[in-house]
Design a protein that fits this description.
The protein has about 70 residues and is mainly alpha-helical. It has one domain. It has 3 helices and no strands. Helix 1 runs antiparallel to helix 2 and helix 2 packs across helix 3. The chain is globular. About 5% of the residues are buried.
């Protein structure tokens, strides 16, 4: 995946999060895939996206514990 592809995917995910609520699990899954690509290629992970990934992960674990 090229950097342009990653940028486009991140932009799309941000629009999804800001717009109509959609499936947050799907958004989390796609965000996680993108960040894993960053990590695998040795690129720095944007802090705000890493925090978003962690927040969604915590929320899903909390919801699963109900």
């Amino acid at each position: 995946m090229t950097m342009d592809d990653l940028d486009a995917e991140i932009s799309y995910l941000m629009e999804q999060l800001e717009g109509e609520p959609g499936d947050s699990h799907e958004i989390f899954f796609r965000l996680h895939q993108i960040l894993e690509t960053f990590r695998a290629e040795g690129m720095p992970v944007p802090e705000n996206l890493e925090k978003m990934e962690q927040a969604l992960d915590r929320q899903f674990k909390k919801d699963a514990g109900k």
